[in-house]
């Protein structure tokens, strides 16, 4: 017998109320939404513990992820994090006040600005990324690694089918066309 989750209860209710709305897309969407909520709870708890918002954490982790010198253009940050230019400006202002990022003009082109982690920012970013990663590992601890890898692989396939390919894959496809 298949074990039931909370989404099964929701789907059963919709099956009675609006049966034509129930299908694989609804079930997948509801489960992804529920799982995303569980992951967001973990991120919020860990980021709050170090005085950051999830958006600030996203900026710090994006800068740390690119490697030394830990710098990106604000437009690249906003695009990769799905933030508006106004939203990213507010986040950057707060992070700069906290001394974890600095903004600097490009030496070769004064029209270009860069956002980079300060040494303090590198330390904070690494600490919070490790804390979030440990918390996610605790959340998923009851789940066998094989199931996690299988689920991650299937979600990758879904994202690729929806056009969400890695930059290198998208470039290779456009070059071959």
Task: Give the topology, please.
Blueprint: H1 6-17, H2 24-49, H3 54-65, E1 71-72, H4 74-81, H5 85-97, E2 101-105, E3 113-117, H6 119-140, H7 145-161, H8 167-176
Antiparallel strand pairs: 1-3, 2-3
Helix pairs in contact: 2-6, 3-6, 4-5
Domain HTH marR-type: 25-164
Protein name: HTH marR-type domain-containing protein
InterPro entries: HTH_MarR-typ (IPR000835), MarR/SlyA-like (IPR039422), WH-like_DNA-bd_sf (IPR036388), WH_DNA-bd_sf (IPR036390)
Describe the protein in words:
- The protein contains eight helices and three strands, in the order αααβααββααα.
- The chain is mostly helical and about 180 residues long.
- Helix 3 crosses helix 6 and helix 4 packs across helix 5.
The CATH architecture classification of the largest domain is Orthogonal Bundle
Number of helices: 8
Strand order of the largest sheet: 1-3-2
Main β sheet profile: 3 strands, antiparallel
- Report the structural category: mainly alpha
Main attributes?
177 residues, 2 domains, 8 helices, Arc Repressor Mutant, subunit A, single chain, elongated, 3 strands, three-stranded antiparallel sheet, mainly alpha
Quick take:
It is built from eight helices and three strands. With 177 residues, the chain is mostly helical.
């Amino acid at each position: 017998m298949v074990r039931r989750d909370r989404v099964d209860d929701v789907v059963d209710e919709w099956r009675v109320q609006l049966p034509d709305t129930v299908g694989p897309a609804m079930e997948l969407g509801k489960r992804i939404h529920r799982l995303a909520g569980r992951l967001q709870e973990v991120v919020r708890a860990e980021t709050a513990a170090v005085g950051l918002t999830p958006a600030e954490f996203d900026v710090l982790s994006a800068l740390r992820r690119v490697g030394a010198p830990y710098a990106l253009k604000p437009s690249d940050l906003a695009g990769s994090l799905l933030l508006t230019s106004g939203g990213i400006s507010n986040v950057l202002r707060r992070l700069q006040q906290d001394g974890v990022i600095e903004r600097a003009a490009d030496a070769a082109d004064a029209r270009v600005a860069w956002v980079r982690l300060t040494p303090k920012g590198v330390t904070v970013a690494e600490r919070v990324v490790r804390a979030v990663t440990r918390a996610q590992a605790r959340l998923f601890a009851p789940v066998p690694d094989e199931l996690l890898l299988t689920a991650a692989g299937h979600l990758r396939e879904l994202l690729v089918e929806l056009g969400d390919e890695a930059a290198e894959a998208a470039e290779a496809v456009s070059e071959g066309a």
